[in-house]
Amino acid sequence: MTDTTDASATAESRAPDTPVRLADGDELAAFVADHDLVLVDLYTEGCSLCQSIEPVVGNVARATEAAVGMINPRDDPELVEAYDVRSAPTLLLFEDGELVDRMAEGFQGTEAIVEFVEDRGESE
Fold first, then answer.
1. d(Cα 13, Cα 33) in Å, to the nearest integer?
2. Using CA atoms, how far apart are residues 112 and 101, in angstroms rounded to an integer?
3. What's the confidence (pLDDT) of residue 14?
4. Is the predicted pLDDT of residue 41 greater than 60, yes or no?
5. What is the average pLDDT score of the chain?
6. Within 13 Å and on the Cβ side, how many CA atoms surround 31?
7. What is the pLDDT of residue 121?
8. Contact 41, 54 (CB under 8 A)
9. What whole-number distance in Å separates Cα of residue 40 and Cα of residue 51?
10. Average pLDDT of the segment spanning 63-84
11. Percent of the chain with pLDDT strictly greater than 90
């Protein structure tokens, strides 16, 4: 999941510049705990919108300080209930381990998602 070769606090809070694929809710929880700001893309296989947004979240990983994770909730159905996932893709924004905002409005471009991350749940 994440590179643990450097155990310093600075390395833990440094976000990877590419999305990290997460296998299940346990990996998601650890990923959120390891980073101050996290954007999670909940996607499903075969979803054309999900496939379209994948390179966009890659851009967001490079353009913001957020760590970006990707997880298919089908691999851990409890995530669907825990985060009230009604459509895919759904983007969840965590700050300091707490869910602060969500975006489930279909495909969004890089600028819209960067603004979503930078607002940190402060959107109007």
1. 10
2. 14
3. 75
4. yes
5. 89
6. 27
7. 65
8. yes
9. 15
10. 94
11. 81
- Give Cα 108 distance to the centre of its chain: 14
Q: Which of 120, 108, 97 is nearest to 41 (CA)?
A: 108
Give the span between the Cα atoms of 122 and 118, in whole angstroms: 9
Output the CA torsion sign for 64, 38, 80, 70. Answer: positive
* Identity at 77, one-letter amino acid code: P
Q: Can you tell me the distance from the alpha carbon of 54 to that of 88, in angstroms, rounded to the nearest whole number?
A: 12
H, E, C per residue of the chain: CCCCCCCCHHHHHCCCCCCEECCCHHHHHHHHHHCCEEEEEECCCCCHHHHHHHHHHHHHHHHCCCEEEEECHHHCCHHHHHCCCCCCCEEEEEECCEEEEEECCCCCCHHHHHHHHHHCCCCC
Task: Give the span between the Cα atoms of 47 and 84, in whole angstroms.
Answer: 18
Q: Convert the pLDDT of each residue in 11-40 to its tens digit.
A: 445 789 999 999 999 999 999 999 999 999
Q: Could you tell me what percent of the chain has a pLDDT over 70?
A: 87
Cα 89 from chain centroid? 11
